[in-house]
Amino acid sequence: MTSPATPGIAAGRLAPDTLAENFADLHAPYDAHEARVAADRCYFCHDAPCVTACPTDIDIPLFIRQISTGMPEAAAQTIFEQNILGGMCARVCPTETLCEQVCVRETAEGKPVEIGRLQRHATDTAMARQSHPFTRAAETGKRVAVVGAGPAGLACAHRLALKGHAVDVFDAKEKPGGLNEYGIASYKSTDDFAAREIDWLLQIGGITLHTGQTLGQTLELNQLAQDYDAVFLGIGLGAVNALTCDGNDRAGVMDAVDFIADLRQTRDLTTLPVGRNVVVIGGGMTAVDAAVQAKLLGAQNVTLAYRRGREQMGASRFEQDLAASKGVTILTNVMPVAIHGNGSAAQIELEYTTAESGTLTGTGETIRLPADQVFRAIGQTFAGIDGPELDRGKIKTTGAGRTTMPGVWAGGDCTAGEDLTVVAVSEGRDAAEDIHAALTQA
Amino acid sequence: MADLTTNFLGISSPNPFWLASAPPTDKEYNVRRAFEAGWGGVVWKTLGAEGPPVVNVNGPRYGAIYGADRRLLGLNNIELITDRPLETNLEEMARVKADYPDRALIASIMVPCDEASWKAILPRVAETGADGIELNFGCPHGMAERGMGSAVGQVPEYIEMVTRWCKQYYDKPVIVKLTPNITDIRMPAEAAKNGGADAVSLINTINSITSVDLDMMAPQPTIDGKGTHGGYCGPAVKPIAMNMVAEIARNPATHGLPISGIGGITTWRDAAEFMALGAGNVQVCTAAMTYGFKIVEEMKRGLSQWMDDKGYTKTSDFIGMAVPNVTDWQYLNLNYITKARISQDDCIKCGRCFAACEDTSHQAITMSEDRVFEVQDDECVACNLCVDVCPVDNCITMERVAPGEVDQRTGQVVPAEYGNWTTHPNNPMAKAAE
């Protein structure tokens, strides 16, 4: 029987019951009464700051008022009209840096209206009780290829299908969903929500899904551009930043995104191995997701090592606090210099840093931590593409996602802008509107 | 510590908080518990005439409307007077009064509108040792259909007649409980006074339908698919009740007539407000029905603390103090000019003041790109709506424009002297200054 103290990398550190509890919903859904009480706190602000802060411009005061008047399904409709992935966004949006950050009750009391949880109440209620809430327009005869079945691609495909276009969605992975399926911490998307949401979304009709199709391998952009009336690229980043330090290739060193994806795809978490002493390199959401989940899987010690100060961390304060509350140690102003071990990783050597006028330098002082598993989470990068021009490493777009290639649009993480689900949804949606306008021009 | 002892019509009670005649006072068990909890007095659930007691519906009796988090704001009922035998009630009243001589115990009575009925019941009530009686001329449902309750309270002549009978056949204080389901509360109050009433109590409940079941298409509470209007009470009726109390208090014909204030009293502050408007004591029902008897403790402590803060040593120090300040619209000072002032430090930028003013009032608040809200004095009529809709206490206040300064809206210098509509040049009925 393994335990958190079992040396090395091992599966089954925690009992199945404990694992189930650890990976349950991060925020339990509101029941109807809780939702009404929470909704009642909304002041129905004029020209509300939360709407301005929402990348998809959901009319938040309206949907909250609809909840408070006993109409969660109607509230969901208000949400879905702007954001067809409102269910997932309710779970994964960093609301603490978006709508809830600017909520006037945050200003007033330091306690915002819980917009994310209210959105989840509305969307869950609607998805549980009714079939797909939109009706597709008559077929236009136009065909659009969407590459990438992540949030941007799905939002784009849905909006295009809604308008009556026929959409083929291609994705390299086995399952659609992109980061919703492979990249989000398990406790944020329980009960296979990502897959259920896609099933529900596809009920609009007019969307054909093709998985296992990779651009540059089984698909060629030029061919797609020829075969279809328009193409939308929502292909995500696709590559991770490399870690340059000695011992980077030792067994036990891996990319955090792979760990997160493995975890999401593992049905029986008692079979998923995790280290006794885990160190995560990085300071963003991915780093926190990996660190927290390693801890929840039963790692005895988990350290998140970040090269700058806490204020510079990409993960929000909420995420940092979540990590701390789960027992993750956050070590700041340290950078990795070497991973030591005899074959497998055993220790990580970190050097303290100082930042002078923005430039990070090592102080020369180092510490060593036991580390049988090291996760790299130092950022992802766009893998590149042949065809459209790039700008600062991402696909260059103008207007609503128009690339430099005629007939080709792009959105989501492969283009400029914040790499957030909700941003991807808005870009996919807006590109769809632009494609529709282009295809229906006389 | 302020002395909460209240003398109402010569009836002394350790505090001004009485339980109104209603379900909480229907039997010995409840009333004993109420006294143990600290209530100053009780008006026993209304007694009917000798004979088979009334029956109540066997479906729901109450309907409610709620504020946030199911906070009960208004309650409606279709319950009738006591449905227990008269003898049982009388025996219990006698026992309770004997055991609690320092508390007020009032018998509420509703019998048919004939002299014999009243003559028959009054000596029986007197035997219980009750401190007085309250004539239920208020219940608007059920009994009113049988010519009692509000059916009497809506006819001043009947009020006067029955009151006179009671004064004739009963020698302790007679309180007349008034219905608000009339046009002018002063008329029934005057009638009660003319009949010799020692006091009036008000308000009884207001005719109401609280809600409609949209599936059954029937009013609630719904009894086998049908509903009927009930009597509305609770916090929502307090403003209506206070106006009626004040009307009686300031009417020259009834000024000085003792009033027992009833209507949505939930906290010490509600009680203090009723008393400031002339109520010698207060009666509570819905608050007790919502929270239990224990709430009286908050009321007692709160009133006592407030009295200490204000330097009042006994309730009579402040009873009626606000009455002289209740006036008619025509006497309000039209030269008193204020402007809304928004504290930018307190503003949380919700914009409700802007929406309210821009959409529904006088377009006197501007909103900048960065959500700074400012009052435009040249448009502000000082309506106070922005204050009322602002979710932050004291963020928006009304500030007086000092006499001698110019009102930016009218361009006129604010006069120092009082001036009202009766002498205003726009009033065709204005009397020219002699």
UniProtKB/TrEMBL annotation, chain A:
The keyword Manganese does not apply. The keyword Oxidoreductase applies. Residues 143-428 form the FAD/NAD(P)-binding domain. Keywords: Oxidoreductase. Residues 21-129 form the Dihydroprymidine dehydrogenase domain. Its EC number is 1.3.1.1. It comes from the Bacteria. It holds the Pfam family Pyr_redox_2. PANTHER family: GLUTAMATE SYNTHASE [NADPH] SMALL CHAIN, GLUTAMATE SYNTHASE [NADPH] SMALL CHAIN-RELATED. This is NAD-dependent dihydropyrimidine dehydrogenase subunit PreT. The gene is preT.
TrEMBL record, chain B:
Keywords: Iron, Iron-sulfur, Metal-binding, Oxidoreductase. Belongs to the dihydropyrimidine dehydrogenase family. Its EC number is 1.3.1.1. One of its GO terms (molecular function) is metal ion binding. Involved in pyrimidine base degradation. Catalyzes physiologically the reduction of uracil to 5,6-dihydrouracil (DHU) by using NADH as a specific cosubstrate. It also catalyzes the reverse reaction and the reduction of thymine to 5,6-dihydrothymine (DHT). It comes from the Bacteria. This is dihydrouracil dehydrogenase (NAD(+)). It catalyses: 5,6-dihydrouracil + NAD(+) = uracil + NADH + H(+); 5,6-dihydrothymine + NAD(+) = thymine + NADH + H(+). Residues 338-370, 371-401 form the 4Fe-4S ferredoxin-type domain. One of its GO terms (cellular component) is cytoplasm. Heterotetramer of 2 PreA and 2 PreT subunits. SUPFAM superfamilies: 4Fe-4S ferredoxins, FMN-linked oxidoreductases.
